[in-house]
Specification:
10% strand; alpha/beta; HET; 13 helices; 273 residues
C-alpha cells in the first residue's frame, strides 16, 4: 500500500512491514488531489492556488491534525491510489476494509458540519458523511475513530457519540462498543446500507465487500444490479446464512426476480432479522 508522509507530503509505497499510520475518511468533492497530482508537489500546490482546490487544503489539514499525535504516515484514498491502473484500483477496493481496520486511528472529516462553540447535534446527524456508501465500512472497520468538523476541530469520538451514531445509522450500539459484526445476520448488515448512495451505481456493491468478507473484481459498466447480484453470489459461497433472501421488492417488476435482491435498499425492513 502507499502512505503519505505527514511531514513531507510525499507518497511512499510499502510492500511489507507497513508502518503505523492514521487514515482519513471523508466525502469526495470535485477538486480532490489525485495520485497523479501529488507526484509533483510544487505543481500540485500551484494548481491549488490557481484553481482554489480545497482538496489540497484537506490533505494539509489532515496531515497537520495527525502530526499532533506523532503520526508520520497517513492513508488518504484520493492520493494514495493510482486510479489510472485498473489492477491497483481493484486491489485497493478489495483491501479497503483491511486498510481501515489496520490503521491506528481513523479521522472522519465532516466538511458540512459547522464549527460552533456549542455543538449542534442536528447538524452532525444531517451530515452527508452518513449518507454515502463507502463511509459505512469506514465507520465500522477502524479500531478507533474521531469526528472532525469543517474547521478540523474534534466533535467527539465514535465511542463517546455511539448512541447518536447508532440512531442516525440504525447500526446497533454494541457494534461501536465491541466491534464484533459477526454476530449480526447478512440481512441486518445489508439494512445498514439500505439508505446509502454512491456516485457510481456499481460502488453500492463494491463498498460492501469488506463488511461481508468477500472479494471480487470490480467491473465498472456492468451496472449496479449486476454488481450487487455478483456480491450476493460471492457471499453465499462462504455463508449458509439464509437471511440473505429476506428482502422485499418495493417496485413492480415485469419479470421473475429470482432469489437475490437488486440493491441494499430492498433490505430496508430487515434490520431485525
Amino acid at each position: 500500500m502507499r502512505l503519505l508522509n505527514t511531514e513531507t507530503l510525499e507518497v511512499e509505497e510499502f510492500l511489507n512491514d507497513i508502518p503505523i499510520y492514521a487514515i482519513l475518511s471523508h466525502t469526495w468533492e470535485r477538486d480532490e488531489i489525485t495520485f497523479r497530482d501529488i507526484q509533483d508537489l510544487q505543481k500540485a500546490k500551484k494548481k491549488a492556488e490557481i484553481h482554489g482546490k480545497a482538496g489540497w487544503s484537506k490533505i494539509e489539514k489532515a496531515c497537520e491534525f495527525v502530526r499532533k499525535f506523532r503520526f508520520k504516515w497517513i492513508w488518504i484514498d484520493t492520493c494514495c491510489i493510482d486510479k489510472s491502473s485498473s489492477a491497483e484500483l481493484s486491489e485497493a477496493l478489495n483491501s479497503m476494509y483491511r486498510y481501515y481496520g489496520d490503521g491506528r486511528v481513523c479521522i472522519a472529516y465532516l466538511s458540512d458540519v459547522p464549527n460552533r462553540s456549542v455543538m449542534d447535534l442536528d447538524e452532525f446527524r444531517k451530515s452527508r458523511w452518513f449518507e454515502r456508501g463507502w463511509t459505512l465500512q469506514e465507520l465500522i472497520a477502524p479500531r478507533s475513530m474521531v469526528f472532525l468538523n469543517q474547521e478540523w476541530n474534534m466533535i467527539g469520538t465514535r465511542f463517546s457519540m455511539r448512541h447518536i451514531v447508532a440512531e442516525v445509522t440504525s447500526i446497533p450500539v454494541k457494534v461501536f462498543e465491541d466491534g464484533i459484526v459477526e454476530r449480526y445476520s447478512i440481512a441486518q448488515k445489508m439494512s445498514w446500507a439500505a439508505s446509502r448512495k454512491t456516485t457510481r451505481d456499481e460502488d453500492m456493491a463494491y463498498c460492501l465487500m469488506g463488511l461481508f468478507g468477500v472479494n471480487m473484481p470490480p467491473i465498472y459498466g456492468e451496472g449496479g444490479v449486476k454488481a450487487f447480484m455478483r456480491l450476493q453470489q460471492e457471499i453465499i459461497k462462504h455463508s449458509d446464512d439464509q437471511s440473505i433472501f429476506a428482502w422485499v421488492a418495493f417496485r413492480d417488476y415485469q419479470r421473475d426476480r429470482g432469489l437475490f435482491a437488486s440493491s441494499p435498499s430492498e433490505f430496508a425492513s430487515s434490520g431485525e432479522i
